[in-house]
Design brief:
Layout: E1 2-8, H1 14-33, E2 40-46, E3 50-53, E4 58-61, E5 64-65, E6 74-77, H2 84-90, H3 94-103, E7 107-110, H4 114-119, E8 128-129, H5 136-142, E9 147-148, E10 154-157, E11 160-163, H6 169-181, H7 183-192, H8 217-228, H9 236-243, H10 247-258, H11 262-280, H12 285-291, H13 297-308, H14 312-319
Parallel strand pairs: 1-2, 1-6, 2-5, 6-7, 7-11, 8-9
Antiparallel strand pairs: 3-4, 10-11
Length: 326
């Protein structure tokens, strides 16, 4: 029997904690219905018996205290709520225990913003990690040694798992169920909980926010120019002249400040504008393409799919209720 320890961090989001518990215990019910013994021993593990969640709106009662769990097989870190730095401070006592358990053979999975608590252990350094796309800039600032891949729903690196934003944690739990219980049980769980199985990208949900929480004034000037003039053809040379930097210096400082190359930033700003038009307007794909400064249909479609994970027509049909195929 695999021992699953679902942590109860102070201020955690109730949904990811209870959703995980429900799904793992439901697997035990599937096995029971087949006349088989339960596969998982699922426990809520807290720093205290009672823990306030979701800004104090709810209270979780731990099955067992952290100090009493000497060995476990899988640790689930639910999403954190509120101010992240404050949440990490309040839950720091989990950190040495997580490290010890991982070094002792346990696997660890973080859900959404639970990635911040996992990253604070140092176990993610040099490894891939997913989290909510809205937290991308803050995560990169706090944990520069982690390879953040915001497009992914799930990352799996040497027994350390992370999920993307919000309810995509359900896909990671399904992934773990498949790993431990088999494909047939995972498919059954997906059907019972009405979860789309094998979803691996959160690109279509992402809203590009830029990254302006830095002190490099020429780079901010370049960013603002790109955002105000996205409908035009913008070149790197044009920006170097405007901010009086060499091309090499601009590229280096831009990447450091924004985590994007200049070209990537231009593309993402243009694609964000295209997405908004496709979501709310009635223009056809070519009209949208021209509006954001592209004249090459193939290039536009290729970059749009790279950024969103979907071709322009599929994206429009997904998010625009008045969409008419063109």
């Amino acid at each position: 029997m695999k021992h699953i320890s679902i942590l109860v961090p102070k201020g955690a989001i109730l949904g990811s904690l209870e959703g995980s518990r429900q799904m793992f215990t439901q697997v035990n019910e599937f096995f029971k219905a087949r006349g088989a013994p339960p596969l998982f021993k699922v426990q809520l593990v807290g720093l205290s018996k009672e823990t306030p969640l979701s800004g104090g709106l709810f209270t979780a009662n731990a099955d067992v205290l952290l100090e009493d769990v000497k060995k476990t097989n899988l640790i689930i870190i639910p999403a954190l709520d509120g101010d992240i730095k404050d949440a990490l401070e309040k839950n720091h006592d989990f950190v040495p225990w997580i490290i010890k358990q991982y070094k002792g053979g346990a696997e660890v999975a973080s859900l959404c913003l639970g990635a911040f608590l996992l990253a604070s252990t140092g176990l993610l350094n040099g490894r891939k990690c997913a989290t909510h796309w809205m937290a991308e800039n803050q995560f990169r600032q706090m944990f520069p040694d982690v390879n953040l891949v915001t497009e992914k729903i799930i990352t799996d690196e040497q027994g350390i798992y992370c999920s993307g934003g919000a309810f995509s944690y359900l896909n990671l739990i399904l992934y773990l169920i498949e790993k431990y219980a088999g494909r047939d049980i995972a498919v059954l769980a997906a059907k019972v909980f009405a979860i789309e199985i094998d979803r691996d990208s959160q690109l279509s949900f992402t809203i590009f926010q830029g990254q302006k929480e830095h002190d490099d004034a020429p780079i901010k000037q370049a960013q603002e120019f790109i955002e105000k003039n996205y409908q035009d053809k913008i070149t790197v040379d044009q920006l170097t002249s405007m901010v009086a930097l060499s091309r090499r210096n601009l590229e280096r400082r831009f990447k450091k400040a924004t985590s994007n190359t200049v070209v990537e930033y231009i593309q993402r700003v243009k694609m964000e504008a295209a997405k908004k038009t496709l979501e709310n307007g009635r223009k056809n794909i070519n009209e949208v393409m021209y509006d954001v400064g592209y004249s090459d249909t193939k290039a536009f479609r290729t970059i749009f799919k790279k950024v969103t994970g979907l071709p322009p027509v599929e994206y429009r049909n997904k998010y625009n209720k008045d969409a008419v195929a063109v």
